[in-house]
Amino acid sequence: MTANMHAFANGAELAGKLADKVAETLSAAVAARGSASIAVSGGSTPKAFFQALSSRSIDWGKVTITLVDERFVPADNPRSNHLLVQENLLKDKAAAANFLPLYQAAATVEEAAVIATEETKAVGHPFDVAILGMGNDGHTASFFPGGSNLKTALDANTPRGIITMEAEGAGEPRLTFTFSSLQDARLLVLHIEGEGKKEVLAKAEAAGEETEMPIRAMLRRAASPVEIYWAP
Ligand SMILES: O=C1O[C@H](COP(=O)(O)O)[C@@H](O)[C@H](O)[C@H]1O
Question: Complex ipTM, two decimals?
């Protein structure tokens, strides 16, 4: 319902400030409830943020990290979001965190989604933190325009958990948390960088169908305010 823009001079400054905010939120969750959860995105944008967050002094042993979405590829595949998190976030102080992958070595992506939903069911009611990205086509998580399960993924009545998505722009079949799983995170962040993404965001904020630019579902209907972190 609400979006707040946080603009920074450059990606390094953004990474540091976002890491500070996320660390503060996770620490507050541990203090209040004894544990904390965070779902993070993949793609090319979050690497510097992950590295900054990995060095923050919080009680990582009480933090569970999972992914907003994942390709149906094993963790040694260069396109795996798990691999990105493994190499950039699950190190330094954050090496003590518990990581829940979405990829499962199942025969089909549908079976993997069922197993991943079961494996992650203890976290995210709601997530303490969810970090979303956005593609140039207006997708977020694996909510792709033209996606095979897009309407179900965006339906607020679809239960929390992971469903599959196949789309022309997605490459491999995907596993993604549903809209209902992510929209009420205590800290809901949209992390985007570059002038091009700012233009995509402006287009998404204008009138149009959610199915054309699925990030609109978050911008319009998320229960939590969307904190937009942007740098040129
Ligand atoms: O496919 C994906 O892309 C988006 C955005 O990625 P970027 O490379 O434009 O930063 C990402 O949020 C999502 O998790 C990922 O699976």
Answer: 0.95
